[in-house]
Design brief:
single chain; three-stranded antiparallel sheet; alpha+beta; 40% helix
Length: 523
Amino acid sequence: MAEPSTGAYRLNTMRRGFYDAAGKRPDMLMDEADMAGDMMEADDTAGKERSRMLEACDRLAASLVVKRNHAVTARASCGIEQTWRSDELAFEGMDEIGMQSRMIDYVTDQAPLKSGKIGPQRSHVVINIIRPKCETAEGRFSDIQLPTDDKNWGLKATPVPELAKNLKDDRPVALKGQDQPLVGADGRPMTVSDIARTDIETAKDKMSGMEREIDDQLNECNFNSECRKAIRNAVRLGTGILKGPIVVKDLRKTWNKIEGGGKTVRVLTVEEDLRPSSKSVDPWDVYPDPECREDIKRAAYIWERESILPRELRDLAGLDGYLSDQINLVLQEQPTKLSVASTKENPFLIKYNIVAQGNAYEKWEYNGELNKDDLEALGCDCSSSPFQSVSANVVMVNDRPIKVQLNPLDTGDLPYDFFQWTQRSGIPWGLGVARMLLWPQRVIIAAWRAMMDNARDSAGANLIIGAGVEPNDGSWVMTGKKLWHDTTEDGDVRKAFQQFQLINNQKELQAIIELALRFADIE
């Protein structure tokens, strides 16, 4: 019987299930097909998951942008920003005259117009009483609230009524189910008062340990220094803001000694340490919920603005809690900065300014209530909350959420505390020392300039020279030991050459300054 051809042999063996047309076994072919199908299915699942995450991020960003724009426009419309700007200029000793001499106005981005009118030359001197008053108030308040040689806080064990009552109980104590009383170290039966006294001592020891732990954490985050910054902002602008407690990550580096084989080496070990911290925040970068009025604890949310460099943004990619895909999308875009339109355009309208490539981005941090469904779509576990809204923390750059997490505080409170130097009604922003002394400062500056003008005018005499008097040297400049010749017909030069002295009002103007200083001390 003739041997079958190679093609016929392969065809027969394929039918019998041994090999395929390429010489591979069918089970091997099925394994490769299954692997390829699994890879395609995995890629498709990953693509769908990425698309779902992007849609959830866009939906969350759209709702947050509305809240942010509302908070930014509300703060701009209440007039507090103009108040802060004038307070800062007053603290630096600037006034309207000094403002006009600047090259570019940083508010309107326009050069000041030059006046073509030639008027009398006035004094432009400034005496600044606001700066020393602010520094005195800041130093005095800081010394009272933040003593350098002691803590401004402490823990004290409160008396528990049950324990205080048991201190007078001398009944013996026995274990449950036993009739024999407990025996102490001295061999004497223990009483209820002994147990109560031991519990009180244990509570005091734990309280002392907690006090040391809190003191160490406050020293680690430079709490006194941050409080002084908040006091400085409160004195100058009227409001000091502390943010905390927040969780910060610190790297602990230790050199551990390893011995072996007669040698000793030291190996560097780096460990991550999570600890609480508090810091002062510039009021210019905080935008609270306008519905909170003067009580910041009633705010539903608070926005905080901060600049972040592209390299700092790249370092966040891959860290726990950050969305790397969103960070990559932000780095592919140009940085945009949010601002409020000027009055010439639509007033209090949010606009986006595209800055040059490579400049810093604006990072917006949101702390407040969010929809549970939006948070769960981004991977947050909200199963422990029975409510529809959950307190959360979101970080956005270029209107893209790059970090979404639940509020790290168990109570759900916002991590911001406002210190108002003088409380105002209807808004969470206070009045500082600079605003209180603004009008006395203007009175003092006006009186001081008037005194300088009067001193200049009364320093020399005003001369009236008639037509019958001429200088011998032909120069009309007034100097000492100068010769003049008389050309009048009657020879009486007193009619053609007279001088008048202006009145010096220094005492009257000085009285105005002293009165304004008294008003400043009263305020």
